[in-house]
Amino acid sequence: MDFSIREWLNLALRWTHVFAGIMWVGQTYYFTWLDRQFARLEKTAAEAGQSADLWMVHSGGFYRVEKKKELGVSPELVHWFRWEALMTWLSGMLLMVLVYYVGSGLIDPDVADISKQAAVPIGLGALIGGWLIYDIAMRSPLGKSTAGFAIFALVMTAGAGWGLLHVFSGRAAYLHLGAMFGTIMTANVWFRILPAQKKMIAAVAAGGGD
Q1: What is the pLDDT of residues 2-41, one digit of tens each?
Q2: Who wins on pLDDT, 157 or 51?
Q3: Are the C-beta atoms of residues 111 and 117 closer than 8 Å to each other?
Q4: Percent of the chain whose predicted confidence (pLDDT) is above 70
Q5: Distances from the Cα of 17 to the Cαs of 9, 78, 110, in angstroms?
Q6: Which of 19, 38, 58, 171 has the maximal Cβ count within 10 Å?
Q7: Strand partners, 65
Q8: 3-state secondary structure string, the chain?
Q9: CA 205, CA 203: separation in Å to the nearest integer?
Q10: All residues at 6 or more sequence positions from 142 whose CB lies less than 8 Å from its CB, including other chains
Q11: What tens digit of pLDDT does each residue of 50-69 get?
Q12: What value does the mean pLDDT take over residues 187-197?
């Protein structure tokens, strides 16, 4: 690949990754904040016999937000928040491929004397394996224990970091560890959270719950 083209791709992917990550984190923070506010409002509103509405001001207007337990519109009108996660992961993976899998810096002969052809499958396997291990653990009895899963996650992170540092260069190892977290988070959104939300919407739309 021509050097100038690769540099422009590098720049475009980096900024796409940064902006997508900002949108993903910002959206997550916003809904986490909303959940906390409604937990407080629902308690105080119930005691006062009032509705739990949240008022906000932004961009020259006032916004009234109300949390509903039933679906008041057709499922096609429900807004989903999912593309931020996919764009963050996809841009990050393309950047990793461009910089490390196509470029240089993935391996260090002083760390492990292996070829790039052998290192790339190891890196991709670490990302997929990290998600599978996490998912199996979350659906096991271990996932029901906050303290137990925290200890498991710490051991898993330390073990993955130790293993990657014995295969890749230091920078590549830590970036793969971060990519493993990003893969876990994105896969969790698309393979666990979104299907559960679709089932919830379908059930409520069919009158199966509130």
Answers
A1: 778 889 999 999 999 999 999 999 999 999 999 999 888 8
A2: 157
A3: no
A4: 95
A5: 12, 26, 31
A6: 38
A7: 54
A8: CCHHHHHHHHHHHHHHHHHHHHHHHHHHHHHHHHHHHHHHHHHHHHHHCCCCEEEEEECCEEEEEECCCCCCCCHHHCCCCCHHHHHHHHHHHHHHHHHHHHCCCCCCCCCCCCCHHHHHHHHHHHHHHHHHHHHHHHHCHHHHCHHHHHHHHHHHHHHHHHHHHCCCCHHHHHHHHHHHHHHHHHHHHHHHHHHHHHHHHHHHHCCCCC
A9: 6
A10: 148, 149, 152
A11: 677 888 999 889 998 888 87
A12: 94
Q: Which two tokens stand for residue 80?
A: 């989903």
* Token pair of 175 as six digits: 């970036």
Closest by CA position to 180, among listed 191, 190, 188, 170: 188
Model pTM score: 0.87
For the stretch 121-124, contacts whose Cβ atoms lie closer than 8 Å and that sit 24 or more positions apart, written own/partner, are 122/167, 123/168, 123/172, 123/176
d(Cα 136, Cα 184) in Å, to the nearest integer? Answer: 12
For 135, the token pair is 């998912």
- In sequence order, the β-bridge partners of residue 55 are 64
Q: What is the residue type of 25?
A: V
Which amino acid is residue 5, in one-letter code?
I
Cβ-Cβ contacts under 8 Å for 43 (sequence gap 6 or more): none
Mean pLDDT across the chain, nearest whole number?
Answer: 91
